[in-house]
């Protein structure tokens, strides 16, 4: 009996040999800082040393914030593209959201928070911190990242207010070091009221 080999039968062992050195689909060396696509769900589905943030596996404790800072789990959130998204909390709490125990821990650290507005609303942002430990600065940006409101100092920190129109794109709260590069720990709340 004469045995014939099909092209597929010949190709499969060759394919296995070519794929064997890959050892999976993740290489920690490539790309080193841009991350890999992932789906955020319960538990960490990324390799050790990486976490899933905004749909990407990124190095844990990445960004400009040193690993000893309070908000290392939110980093990197130093740009609008990496902003910490508050929409999940707002879905269950449409009147507002609060975040406690975050920090600007070095002068070049910037914290971006994004949120969408599902109806025309007035937003009040209150940022609280110990002013004698160093001032902070903050802005509200519209979906095009144009300045919507600049923070004004209060006795306990900063306050911002702005009217927001329903948009499919997010608005941003940006918190950064104050004059002279001062840093500090802070808490904030965003509350919404109808226009």
Characterize the structure shown.
The chain is mainly β and 195 residues long. The protein folds into 2 domains: 32 residues, no CATH class; 126 residues, Jelly Rolls, CATH 2.60.120.380. The chain contains 2 helices and 13 strands; from the N terminus they run H-E-E-E-E-H-E-E-E-E-E-E-E-E-E. A 5-stranded mixed sheet has the order 4-6-12-8-9. A 5-stranded antiparallel sheet has the order 5-13-7-11-10, with no helix packed on it. A 3-stranded antiparallel sheet has the order 1-3-2, with no helix packed on it. The longest helix is centred in the first third of the chain and has 13 residues. The termini are far apart.
Summarize the structure.
This protein is 10% helix and 38% strand. By secondary structure, the chain is mainly beta. The chain folds into 2 domains: 29-60, no CATH class; 69-194, Jelly Rolls (Sandwich), CATH 2.60.120.380.
Describe the secondary-structure layout:
Layout: H1 7-19, E1 36-37, E2 50-53, E3 56-59, E4 84-85, H2 87-92, E5 96-104, E6 110-115, E7 121-128, E8 136-141, E9 147-150, E10 152-154, E11 157-164, E12 171-177, E13 184-194
């Amino acid at each position: 009996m004469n045995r014939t080999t099909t092209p597929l039968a010949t190709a499969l062992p060759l394919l296995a040999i070519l794929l064997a050195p890959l050892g999976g689909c993740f290489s920690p060396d490539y790309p080193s800082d841009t991350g890999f696509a992932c789906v955020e769900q319960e538990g960490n589905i990324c390799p050790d040393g990486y976490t899933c943030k905004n749909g990407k596996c990124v190095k844990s404790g990445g960004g400009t914030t040193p690993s000893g800072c309070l908000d290392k789990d939110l980093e990197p959130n130093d740009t609008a593209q990496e902003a910490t998204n508050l929409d999940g909390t707002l879905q269950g709490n449409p009147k507002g959201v609060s975040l406690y125990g975050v920090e600007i821990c070095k002068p070049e650290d910037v914290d971006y928070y994004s949120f969408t507005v599902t109806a025309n609303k007035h937003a009040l942002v209150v940022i609280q911190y110990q002013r004698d430990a160093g001032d902070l600065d903050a802005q509200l940006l519209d979906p095009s990242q144009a300045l919507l409101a600049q923070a004004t100092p209060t006795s306990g920190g900063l306050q911002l207010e702005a009217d927001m129109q329903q948009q499919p794109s997010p608005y941003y709260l940006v918190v950064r070091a104050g004059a002279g590069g001062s840093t500090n720990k802070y808490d904030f709340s965003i509350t919404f009221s109808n226009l």
